[in-house]
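#dry-run=false #mode=assembly
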Amino acid sequence: MKKASLLRQMVAGVLVAELICAALLSGLAVVHEMRGRLRAFDVMLRGRADSVLGAIRDAEDPGDNAVVDPSELQVPDQDIYVVVDPSGRVLGQSPGLTEQLAKALRERATEPYFPFRSGGSRYRGVRLNGVRVIDRDDHGGIRRPVLILYASPSYPIWHESIEAVRFYVIGGIVLLGATGAALGWYLRRKLAPIEELAATAAGVSPQAWEFQPPAAARTTRELAPITDAIEHLLKGLRAAFERQRQLTGDAAHELKTSIAVLKSSLQLLTLTPRSATEYERGLEGLLLDTERTEELAARMLALARLEEAVAAEDETTNLSSAAASVVNRLRPIAELRRIGLSLVAEDDVAVPLASEDAEVLCSNLLMNALQHTPAGGHIEIRIRTEEASTVLHVVDDGEGIPEAALPHVFERFYRADSSRSRQSGGAGLGLAICKAMVERVHGSIDVQSTYGSGTEVVVRLPGCSQAAPGPLPPTQSADRSVSKGSL
Amino acid sequence: MRVLVVEDELRLASNIAEALRQRCGYAVDCAATGTDGLSLAELGNYDLLLLDLMLPGVDGFSIVQRLRRSSNSTPILILTARDERSQVIQLLNAGADDYLTKPFDLGELLARVKALIRRGKGASNPVLETGNLSLNAVEQTVRCKGQLIGLSPTEYRLLEYLIHRPRAIVSGRELLEHLYDYNWQHHSNVIEAHISNLRKKLRAAGEETSIVTIRGRGYRLEAPEKQI
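#status=ok
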């Protein structure tokens, strides 16, 4: 596909504008020129008609008639004239005047100046009413009014005008060509930084992130925003790319390690002949390993799904009932570990999450708390509404998180204490999943912890207008302790 | 032989440890964090280190660097899930001896471990000989003039360790350190008992090589005069 050229368009635009200007100017100039020439022609005609008037003499005949004396007349041969007196009698006419021409001349002479055609030629004529005094004496002589029709071929005017037009057109074309060439060269020169910028930007790749735009790209007002935008974009891309690479590496590491466990467990079983019980125990271990790999894959997929898809706007869930069902499900584990579990929740708290997501959120946070709380500890889940948002607290009095680890807890595959969380099956994805889930609906998740004395996770979710609870729900102070650990 | 496995994936560490114990008869200690691994490696007398790269605390690469900088020459076999060439080159240059990428073959891991330990002791042949005695580290068998001598795993490990240190005096403490992991409640009389059993078995097989007790200092494997 042929690409539109900005340069060509600009040059073409300028040339078209110039062409229009040139045409208008030429037209105006030609009109002006024509009018000037016509006026000069008319003056000349009038002069010649006057000289015809001057050449009228007494005809020396009995009727005291006047006659044009051609010998006193010095006019060009191609000019024609007719002199008539008021009675219509022709006093004289140019020598070569034909009948047809004379007829045309007399017919068209209705105005002082008039154009007419005859026999294929254009003429311009003048009509002059004059008075000739003949037989001048002391009493003044005889006044004879005469009408002089004088015409001259008008082709010199047209010829000169066409010459002028030709001059303007040729000059215009030359000027346009020169402007086009100069403009093209100049614009190309001035647009060079764009091409350089493009070449520099094209040189950037995941292997070479360095972006060194030409100096002009920064100092030109029109280019600076583009340069800044490219730089900003590349910076973001690079960060995203690095994050992705890190993530892929981490994911590969986790999967390979998981497979390494499976493979080594299998090979260990086949290394030496074993008894049926040993095989049985080995296979049970393998099943657990497989389940862990499965869990890891499921969590990685869940995270990928959360990050790719856009949240369905219309899904809402009652967070309190989701939390209650998770608490019920995990109560046996908590009791086994002798950890107290309590849920303090408002009755009807709608959050913009799908019901499975809400349960995953609660269960991940609660599992995390359970894993890091020793026997005899206590975990409390609080759900309440604050203005337009829903706040979920998961508070434990467990071992807490070391300060150095605190900024990293939401990173994928991060484990504050590796041995423990690996034993309990997490791949360091639980909190990352929670974060992705909460941020997808424009909520926030924070963790506060004092090492050695407990952790508090606070999740803020935007409320749902259609199912928002009243300002003072009657159950606000109701303490619904779902389960208390058996201490 | 005593091996330290530094690996944060506990199932994997225990699988490796079990395989090393069962197939090679080695004493194996495990550390789940880089910090623990480094202090154990610095304190303990290990014949080989199996090191994961991505570890909490100190990472595997730093462990290699720090051990080598403090002139610890224990052979190091790296286990890594990432097989980027540049990383491998960096590791080997920093002083690691070999590497395996996860998931690996357990048999290959054992073979590499044995080869590295042999080379660490200055012997590349898996069959070690002294006097009429020949010890095959791959088969884990001991023969005298071609006749198989039936040894218990501990007796075999004792003899293997001594045979790697020809003519040197090996203390009971050193033997304890290299033959048992740190979960073992050590008593040097355990070693004494095993040494005496080993002596009896060697003598019964007609072997002239003997384990000499050097009072207050330890034991030495002595081949007959004519052989030396």
